[in-house]
## 1
Amino acid sequence: MNNAFGKAYGKSRIINDGNAAGDILECAEGLSFWGGVDPETGRIIDVHHPNHGQLVSGKILMMPTSRGSCSGSGVLLQLSLNALAPAALVFCEHEEILTLGALVSDRIFDRPLPTIVLPKTEYERLARCNSATLSQGRLSADDFTLELDRVEPGQLCLTEKDKSVLSGEAGTANKMAMEIICLMAAVNGAVELTDVTKGHIDGCILAHSANLIFAEKLADLGARVSIPTTINAISVDRENWQSQNVPQDFGNRASRLADAYVKMGVRPVFTCAPYLLDDAPELGETIGWSESNAVIFANSVLGARSPKHPDYLDLFIAMTGRAPEAGVYTEAGRVPRTIVEVELPLDNHDDLLWPLLGWLAGRCSPNNIPVLRGLEGTNPATDDLKALCAAFGTTSGAPMLHVAGLTPEAYLPPSPDAERHVIRRSDLVAAWKELNRGDCKIDLVAIGSPHASLSEIRQIVELLAGRRCNTSTQMIITAGRDTLLAATGEGLTEKLAAAGVRLLPDLCWCSITEPIFPRHAKGLMTNSGKYAHYAHGISGRHARLAGIRDCVEAAVTGTAKAQVPGWISDRAAE
């Protein structure tokens, strides 16, 4: 994913200083802390991860890099505030999400969390040890010691305005923001900062207290965004939660979190799909977004430019209008480094193909930008590409993908050393089985992760064709405020209400907890590969994944098909 990173970190480096000692926990696969680690216990809860059930707290936690949601930085901060964080983090590839969380823990909350990057050979040597100690810039384990170079932003070329912000002339909040931006620039091997035109804030879900503590602290320090900035889905229906049996304390705190960002000048759209808004970024536009699905869609489908900025860094960038010029902000950073050949099923695939492909493509390319080949004859809708990008973001840490013949920069030649993978029909079968662990009796059909589009809502109304949801099954659609307003104008919300379908603004399934998530519901069905992947970690229920047509049928009948769809399976694969 990142040649510049490899060159900058040929030596053993310490990004965030401190002392630590503990047993080593090596994760051979990257881990998304959001949806993958419980911030109240420190236990790995991602059922798809090889280290499921193990504790990260107090460990020298090793993984090549993180992956998944931008919100992992907030989970790490909450672990730190709960005294449940790893003793230290050790990576051997480019990593930003947990690194940013560690910097915020140290620089803003005075809770050091050492973060180290090692060359591959030293990383593998350390992984063979049982325990390690970090003290005064030295990492010791078994019979060897490594001297660690400190990462410093000393070579960064700053404008006079940048320097004035860094000196504190724009206030304490902006000074802290610029300091961390400069450190992240050094982490990325960047030599200068770039202007960004739009921001999108992700750390606004009350999944834990750290997000609220951070936002209110910055707001109290006088932080204000300096560029047009939108905000992600939140944890409550902001205007109606009081009538939805949401606990008073939770509702108040979730509202305070949203209000803190609005106080800082953020536009209260409360959507995880800002690319569906009227002012979506354009081809080549340089933006500063967080929220993994939004970043991947913006880069891949729109051709805009934004790294997958970690939570909290998104606010710092929106405050200053500046970001490290590295990664996908550069032409070289957008080059595919993995080639994925897709052997497409020939028999009338439906929209389920796209989340399955995204999930598999991420597994083929967990750290690098891939190009998918073999889909040139398809004609995916924008909603299909939305599903592809969202599912890709659950299994890959890369900020974009290319699809030959479909996405605007798929013409970029792959790196000469690009890895090659093939997605076969048998892989689609295996992915379907992995993401369909839930009950076939369906109590809840969840649509809108990412937020449903107007075209998806129209399609659901058409598929219902005047029918109603089963008396034992709820269907809930989450969508952005602008989308719901348009749907109401077309009379769609009235038709859905008559069918027993519930529409919710402001939340998405990645932020919904009980009682909005029905307490009695056991059987869960969704059209989202992202939610199918994270559902158990969020709700404690395994999901079933299907296309919209089958989701509607499950809502009407109360049951899901148990067998692999015929267009996926060629019988031999089963």
## 2
Amino acid sequence: MSEQESAATESGIGEPSDEWREYHGAPTGTEIECEGWRQEAALRMLNNNLDPEVAENPEDLVVYGGTGRAARSWDAYDTILAELRDLGDEETLLVQSGKPVGRFPTHERAPRVLIANSNLVGKWDDWEHFHELEAEGKIMYGQMTAGSWAYIGTQGIIQGTYETLAELGRQEYDDDLEGKIVATGGLGGMSGAQPLAVTMNRGVCIAAEVDTHRIERRLETDYLMERAESLDEALAAAEAAAEAGEPYSVAVEMNVADMLEAMDDRDFVPDVVTDQTSAHDELEGYYPSGYTVDEADELREKNPERYVEESLDTMERHVDAILELQDRGAVAFEYGNNLRGQVEDHRGREDVDSGMWPLSGSDPEDRQAFDFPGFVPAYIRPMFCRGRGPFRWAALSGDPADIHRTDEAVTELFPEKESLARWIDLAQEQVSFQGLPSRVCWLGYHAEDDADGLTERARFALRINELVADGEISAPIVVTRDHLDAGSVASPHRETEAMKDGTDAVADWPILNALLNCAAGADIVSVHDGGGVGIGNALHANNHVVLDGSELAAEKARRVFTTDPGMGVIRHADAGYEDAIDEADQSDVAVPMRDRQ
């Protein structure tokens, strides 16, 4: 048994499943072991989450984000698989924090699986109570796409990071990132997309990462170009590439707080500074300065209280280094990991009026954690207002040709979208598949009369369903998305930060999103607490639809891919965003209080 497997057994998760060892990723091909493709899709996507090519620590059931799991224990994993194999076409399986807890008769159009992860009642909704329950084996952290069986590896976040940086380039530099240097931290399952997203936008990336294995993994999968032996070597290579206008990425093995402080000491100011370490979890996700990975892991086990304090001390230095570089001219933003929130909550660095971003030239003594913005209010919210967000799909056949056919289909459907065509070309050339071949592209609502009033997402899903029915795609496609989407999240430090009407923390919207997608007939629906910002800081929902070529799949696709992006439109219209109100008017989305005035 490996050291990781031994640790998993000691933690109460149990010894890794023999079935998991045998699968070694998602089953592929056109033969199924379940009663139908909707159940089979759930089984394959769960196993895809735990594919060693996809997950960060599959022996411990951890998919990404420090502790984001796909199932609560290996016994629960085995039981989920057994239930999915027996699940009928008019039954629904209930999964509570990674444990199958019930199966009920429903109907053909109901979801086959309903999932709830990490949810706690408000007064007790914090890490302390969560960890007590977790230690007793009563709950697990589902992150976002880990516990909803929708994770597809680093390829899943790549376009979101690409879109964020593309918009930054348009806003700050009137074009792309050519000749610009981006400094960041983290090369894990999600953060590992950063170097490739920068180079896709023709920029230069310097990434700090404490874990040598993560650096090696990003090099192996072509998300990263080179590794430097020192920061000075990395800076020299980055400056040379920027001066030549060449896309380039380099990693240096060091703590990101140390790296940013060292840049400041050297009077090196990157054009852009951001971060995507797992700062939402100060115990399991973030590494304090002054330790190797092995030393930090030992400290975590022997003295978790000290570990947490040293992590938070490092986070405060991390934030201060970002603020210093911002004052010296760098464009700064947080990429949704709650780094600022941790420093605000635990180090007394109070929030300020977000309308003051950026606070260049502020007195260092007066700097606060939120003196630089999150990526959503800075760059993404106009897209959310129009229901646009990360739409993803996986080929259950395992055949890359099926994804290539969908690439052709999406560009054929939307010939006017030059940025979409460019993205597909870049993805085909540069994004390596991990596990089941998959793709992501940002599509929204935007229903037009000449397209029968169908939304962008519905049009594309229906086209995929036709291709499956016609045999041009060899097996069904499962369509899902990130939880980070237009109408599926309440997260005051990320997706709903600085809402126009002050409703950052109103969590009715993701609940309505999940309920509506159940009513519309999604095949898997999930609701989680925490996500990428930590317990008590967010509520979010997700869905899957299996496109098997049937009329039932087409019926579901028409509804779900109208309701899901439509939630983004009405959520932002309700908050008073003109872009959302305009989208509602153009696409005939009902907004009752406005329509009946």
